[in-house]
Amino acid sequence: MAASEFPDLPRFPVGFELAEALTVASQQLHETLTPHSTLRTAVRLAVHLMPGAEHAGISEIDRGNKLRTLAWTDEVVRSAEARHEGREQPGHWEQLWTSPVARIADSEADGGWDVLSALGLRSALSLRLRADRRRLTVLTAYARKPGVFDEDATRIGRLFTAHVSIALDSATVREQLTEAMHTRDLIGQATGILMERQGIDAAAAFESLVRASQRENVKLRDLARRIVGAHNTA
Fold first, then answer.
1. According to the model, what pLDDT value does residue 3 have?
2. Can you give the residue ranges of the ANTAR domain (predicted)?
3. How far is CA 44 from CA 38, 41, 47, 69, 139, in A?
4. DSSP H helical ranges for 112-150
């Protein structure tokens, strides 16, 4: 990845430079419009901010330790995490249910990490972004040398992931509000169509829509979308 992708960010900053870099990174993250774009920006920023990081990915891990990759910097990460997707993971991931950090010092020495060592990835630092009873969201940085991620790298990584978590929550709320507004508009349009078709008022049309949703076991927004779509193509 080209260091020039984020020209305002020094690579692997320290001291006051780190505080300024985290501020710029936070601004970059909050400018994203969706949770997915937030995650894509986060993995690219991680390679610039986290000392020693050469690659990064963000994954979801469920209670059965099954992994699904959400964002990645390059095909090396995508290949590494894809080989673990849908399979139970080694103990490294298990640590993240009780600890915000898990590290692999050397994939060639640690058992269960043949996939990483085969791709030339020797070190890994995983940092928890989100956690609930069912799943984790985790950012993992990778390096080609062993023992890269020391305590300083971990502290910087935790500061960075705190900013990522806040930005991700904000993007999620924005997406939910946008969806709610879209759903409201769809239901309003569907109600208007039923009023016109059946010669009834708005309350009766909405009640008819709700009854149909319950009868057909279809979400209200999906039924409204179907009615509006059929009306527009008629």
1. 44
2. 167-228
3. 10, 5, 6, 15, 11
4. 114-118
